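Supplementary Data S3. Sequence and structure tokens for construct A.
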Amino acid sequence: MDKKTYLELRKTEFNSIELKILDTLRGEGRTDDYLVNEIAIALLAILVKEVNDYSQLSELIQVRFEEPVKMFLDRVANKYEELITETSKSSDNNILRAIISFAGNPGDKGRAEDSTPDGISQLCIKLLEIDENDTVLDMGSGTGTFLTQVYMETDCKELKGVEINTNSFLVSKLRSSVLDNRFELKLGNAISENYLPLEANKVFSNMPLGMRLPNLRNSLNSNDELNKFFENSKRTVSGDWIFSIAAFLNTVQPGKTVSIMANGGMWNKPDEGLRKELIEQGLIEGIIQLPERLLSSTGIPVTILIMSQGNDEIRMVDASKYATKGRRQNTLENRDVKNILNAYHTDTDISKSVSVDEIAANEYILNPNRYMEVEVEIENGISLGDLCLSINRGAMVKSKDLDNMVSKTSTQYHYLMLQNIKDSLIDAELPNLKDIGYRLSKYCIQDKNLIISKISPFKIATAKVKDGERILANGNLYFVEIDESKVNPTYVEVFLQSEAGMLQLNKYAKGAAMRSISIQDLKRIQIPDIPRKEQDKIADEYTLLTDQLIVMQKQIDLVRDKKMRLMEEVL
């Protein structure tokens, strides 16, 4: 089937025939099998017209297809002979080809989890800059929608795909058959296996979002080259990075890799070390932040990651407002794609190139809006100033005076500095002081005070002050007393640590080499006014996760101590 015929098929109405097929399939087997069985029945209905007798269908399958496709088609042919015969008689080939090509594509009855929406595919194809000499590989090719669109929009040399889900693999193989087998498809694991022998220099990846390192560890351990990036990673590192780097490592260089990722991997703390390594190696070319509700499988906003070699700056595009809104799902229409591409290649109010030094100063955060002069919209927001009883700055103590105050023995007096805050937690052991005189007592923090660093990159934590203990805050810190009758203090902490909170802190921060925020500007930060019940739920979950993190850190310290003492009994 040529491209012109394929485009004409898009206009073909096939719902009535499809419903008849699905009526038979419903209640038989798993719902996950409906799509692949539907497409198989449509294809077999076409093949029936080529044979004189249904008994000859199996022989035709053996000639036309390879394993595991022919085994699957044989099974469907034996199980649904009556339905296939009836469908063949009642439907012309164009309707059947339309079912094979478009059933279950994005937007179709919620059966599109393994498909890439047309608008995203179109944008990624342009970002890959595919020409007639390129071999394109889809890592996680799903039901073949991206490869089909590449075939329709480019004249690339070869199209290849790797898919781990058997049903999706079979769907894409059946679809490729009506396109004269334009795709070379492999059933395999995108993480554990090496696909460089496929010689693809343009690689795309739209893999499952939100997976974590422990879920992928077994596959990762089978790939030494990929595993090097994650040997020292935290357990909470984003699985999205594993899939994206796997795609890059399977790209023949010089080449280009484009991946779809959740936004969290661009800014969260567990991924900072990984982002740093990739950025310093010059492997990240660009970041495009997209709107929410573009994928059928999730409503979260996503990011396009563009990887290549030799990048000393990164192209940032905040395209979070560029989409055509739908009732259930948003889409990228031609005009949206055109605007985003223009922003990627030309500086606009939503795009710019950012140096590695500037990104390093922002904890290697890759959210484009972190580097744009954008307005942060908080619906139903209440200013932090209206939720506080007080905001105070820590004491400006000269180094000489502080040296005289430091105690070498344990006391009830302590000193809190910026470096004592790590992963939103305050060190359990703080520097000891001999005493805190009356003059400095007003700079002492209280239990449950919210601690916010004055300078960027901003750190947020909640103080825990024991009975009889006194903690003097450093001048680079603010300590905030939240009015608990108005808001849950932990909820405020969680929000300020989020990317939306950090965006506001950075928006109001001033300065060049060292950016800092004033108390007046801190008061202007908007906190979303959600029901107290929802605030408490978020706070409880955060507290539980924080407790787990503390336990894990203690376990790490214990293991490190045991490692250091291994030889003590021998020596």
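Construct B, processed identically:
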Amino acid sequence: MILTEDQLQDLLDKSLAELPRGSEWAVTLEGSIAEGFGNSSSDIDFLLVARSEDDLPTMPSLLFVDGRRVEIRTRSVRQLAGQLRAVEEGAARPGRLSEDLLNRCQRLLHSHPLRGHALIDEVKGLLPVERFRGITAEWWAHRARQSLRHAMALLCLGESEEAVDWTRAGLVETVKSWAARLGETYLEPKWLSMQLDRAGRGDVRDRYWQLEAAAPAPGDPDAAHTHLTAALAFAADLGLTGVPRQPERITVRRVHGVTTWQTGDRVHVLRGRREVFALGDAAGAVWRSLVLGRPLPQVLATAAGSGVGDPGPLLATFLRYGLIRLSWKGGGTIAPSLPLAAPPGPVTPPPSTARPLLSLRGGAVGGPRAVDLMPLPADRFAAAAMALVWSNVVVENAVEDLTGALQRGQWRVAELTARRAVHAALRGLFSAHGVNPLPADADLVRRLDLLPSSDGGPIGARAGELLRRAVDTPDQGDTLLTDLRSFIALVRGAVGADSFPLSFESADTWRATLELGYDWLRIGAHLDAELPIEEARDLLACNGTQPHQAAAR
């Protein structure tokens, strides 16, 4: 220990003098100094134990005494007993055993009593050290298996650089498991070199550091394979089981709450009913090629047959984003994690910056291999998309009504109908940018400042002029219809709706309109999003056909 007993007692006296009086504490020194590690910058970690039945604060008090940083933590006997009991009860499921809980118990069991020795020994006796060594060793072994299996999967997918990092993590976890059985249970890896020195097996220590130094540089897949093979052999020699070099034991599995929805050629993947990922053409082709439940090498081979070059990184992206998961035959889901790091789990990438956010085809993407997160909740995404489709139906209906009114010289009807078409087109513009709920029609032109100036500026100027247009002659009517069609084309070009069917021109164009709307309505209904009109429920009930045609069938 780098401090003498007298130095520790002196630091303790000075620390306790800064705390409120009243409680009788047993005190023990925790952490790296108690373990025999530490240096001049290490904290002095005092744990104060009381027989109180109260829940004492978890957060430590931080003091500065004689140039040293001192942490004071307090715990009741009841709290400590609960922690030790939880570790014992969780031993059967090491993958679910909390790192923080294990760390707290380890620090206590390896602490150095300073006062109230009998009480400290009483608490420590609730979980024998030998038993704790076995629990810690199994906890590290579980993590080592997960990391090495994950590295194996990444190599299969062509992600060699990431595979090297997880191989190195698996090596650390393997030797930590081995060392724990010899009594070196301190969790934080930074003192690993000293732990291996104390373990007394120079051969193991030297072989570990040789493998650590042999980690290949980026860009050398063959070296990454060689490194993983050597790491697996080392792990097996140290007694780690369950990690043979057999990637065919890795299976691609479905993730609960992940569903696929396609509109036209665009594939959308919903995660947890809350987030929407829009897939580029290549990413969508790989996604559609997936047959879940098959071994990873077979899934990769099928994806390669989809016509997409190098599909492995795309599958790796699906895995990182939690859209698929991997399992080990007989070993459950592969869920790697690092000690004292961010908790494991699906990555949520930054939201897409594409504008507009969506078109009739689907969510906007940044390229063919894109897996882009839409920057709005799934229900709003679906509601905005349905509003985009419906606004274009209203535009088509308004243009048809305007044409009829002009033919009959119904000038006031024509003016009002043209305004309805302009408002409907603007609703589509706002919807394509993800605005939902929409502003009131009367406010749409004034709210164009919500949109990028490249869209809102030119369109807003033309919309304002059309909304003020008066008609009282056939020539003015013809000009209005021409200008309105030009305005509609401008808006549709901005939101990717150029190919919207002329809904009311024929039975074929109406059927195409229903099919387009049905694709989006299915997503909206799945997410309980607000439907644009009540009649949409009938379209859903009839699987995209007109209700009376469905009844006739």
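Residues 276 and 372 are 8 Å apart (CA to CA). Residues 379-552 form one domain.
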